[in-house]
Specification:
The chain is of the alpha+beta class. It has two domains: 170 residues, DD-peptidase/beta-lactamase superfamily (Beta-lactamase, 3-Layer(aba) Sandwich), CATH 3.40.710.10; 131 residues, Beta-lactamase, CATH 3.40.710.10. Helices cover 47% and strands 12% of the residues. A hairpin with a 4-residue loop joins β6 and β7. α1 packs antiparallel against α11, α5 packs across α7 and α9 packs across α10. The chain is globular and about 55 Å long. The structure holds glutamine (GLN).
Amino acid sequence: QHPDIWQQLQTHLGEWVIQSKAQAPKGHVATYIPELANASEDSLSICVMDGSGATVTAGETDCLFTLQSISKVFTLMLALIDHGEAVVFSKVGMEPTGDDFNSMLKLELVEPGIPFNPLINAGAIAISSLIGGDTPEKQIERALAFFRDIADNPSLAINQAVFKSESDTAHRNRSLAYFLKDNGVLDGEVDDILRVYFSHCSIEVSCKDLARMALVLAYDGVDPIRNKRLIPRRYVQIAKTFMITCGMYNASGEFAMNVGLPAKSGVSGGILTIVPGRYGIGVVGPALNRKGNSTAGVHLLETLSREFDWSLF
Ligand code: GLN
């Protein structure tokens, strides 16, 4: 379809990875979840997958990492599947905050005290409460089955060490959740809902899994490899809109300016992005900038977008 791009990727992706490692501003691995501090600070890898499942990869692509906030895009779509738009948007808003992802500053500002959007921590915790299932165990099972289906990988699993590490130290997320409970946003027990939230954040993937998941979004909810619809188009449209406006936290404007593609990052250093109708892309570089995004990963995506004129704008 675009043989020139594919050939250029095969020729240059390795050198662009080396360049981004050398030229990106220095970052640091997240330490507030102690287990994430074990990641290798200067690694960077990428997988680009086309609609036939062919890939071009570069870097240490066999390393595994947890989805963290990238999972929020998928739990949003799962909550939409389970409850529809009216219920979901009675619990979260549609606007970026301009604040850090774990901020509590604006929780009282949208009537009636709902989080600004589903991709900040407060919003994603509200979304976790909407995943179908009578018990937290069933909700976790349902989420895991959904992620496995999207990634077409039945062996995706929760990294229990990361789950425990986050659960043991999540004082801030706990306070956000209690605040939401008090505002009447959460039905159910705070501890149960947080267990669901920490579980989907702790699902472990490779770069290739991430690219495979991205591919389904790039094709508006249809898996082009199995030729099977997995998510209604409207819900992918909603998810992609949030990825543009809030996917890179409070650096989403800058990323839209310099890369111009829907994307979602996580504090493990992963970034999922798409070239609509063409490619799913998974990147991981654990060293983060001040806003919580992979510094080398953002640099690499800026290079690709510039080289191939991928910006949607
Ligand atoms: N599990 C992480 C947290 O709640 C996810 C945050 C992120 O990736 N930005 O802090």
